[in-house]
Amino acid sequence: MIRVVWMQLCVALILALIVSFFWTAHIATSLFLGALVVSLATWLMVRSATVGDASQQSLYKSAAIRFFTVLLALFCIALAGLNMPAAIVGMVIVYMVGFGVSAWLIVGLDKQAR
Asked: What is the pTM of this model?
């Protein structure tokens, strides 16, 4: 699953570079920080899944920590005066990449198991 985090970070960087050519660096920075928030949340999820404690309480605790981390990061982005819609677009794109890569890995592992 760490591959998903690296893929998200690479897509975030490439996306920010492309956006910086067509729009301002302010929007590219906002987009990159939004994507970075998603990568951080994904890394926290992977870290909590590999700890080995799969109890219901630890899963809820992990989800709550990720939720408040994302809220705090969005609040900091807003306080910094960055472009919030661009940050949210970056988050959505990187989430979609994360889901796509995860599904691709799961399907690939399923094919190898057969």
From this structure: 0.73
